[in-house]
Amino acid sequence: MTAMTPEVVILGHHKIGPVPAGYWASWYYVPVAAFAAQLELMRVRGYVPLTLAAFLDGIDRPETLPPKSYLLTFDDGYRSLLEQALPVMRAAGVPGVLFVPTGAVGGTNHFDFNVEPLEAIATWDELAEMERGGLAIQPHGVSHRAFGTLTPAEQDTEVAESKRAIEAHLGRPAELFSFPYGDNSADPATVEQILRRHGYRAAVLYGGAPVPFIPANRYRLTRIAIGSDTHLATELDRL
Predict the structure, then answer these.
(1) Percentage of the chain with pLDDT > 70?
(2) For residue range 210-232, what is the model confidence (pLDDT) as tens digits?
(3) Contact 47, 9 (CB under 8 A)
(4) Residue 8: closest CA among 228, 174, 224
(5) What CATH number does the domain containing 51 carry?
(6) Whose CA, among 10, 45, 163, 172, lies 20 to 30 Å from 124?
(7) Does any domain span residue 1?
């Protein structure tokens, strides 16, 4: 890794804090102390946290990126992030991106029924509060359905309507998409055309590898999935 070939590590979280009372343990819950330790590890390893704007600009102009940087992301928009994640991020001076399925705003993660503990998804007012705290809100579809189960017309609706809702409620551009379940379908080329048509500059899924800039495909950017037993130092040592 050199200053001429920067790489960006994208971390993909879901839930920070304890499992809700009465529910089973889930891999997606990262304890607050572990989350704080992850941010400190990134600092010690020399990774610079990026804002959404810096990340997107870096895709177009890699020379603006530091040699080592990272983008902190969360999927699904849980209300608990307000109390569990944001204070840690503010203390560490780390911004992030929160991807929200707009059809679930103000409701619950019903899309994970009987798979994950039922939790509240933030309201639009709470999402606005998160934005003020440093979490840029971006689309995660409308219904949180895997793109591999949708027709191209349904994919178009998910991409277009989630963008429209976020821009209407929060008054900021929606330019980075996160695929529900990391599934960009069996025909990613068609999905890429849809994303481009609606003005998205990039999209993220999973896969674990760091993203070299210039990326091979800005609509298939890989993230490291972070869960309760993820050893981030080991993941970084693979770079």
Answers:
(1) 94
(2) 666 666 789 999 999 999 999 99
(3) yes
(4) 224
(5) 3.20.20.370
(6) 10
(7) no
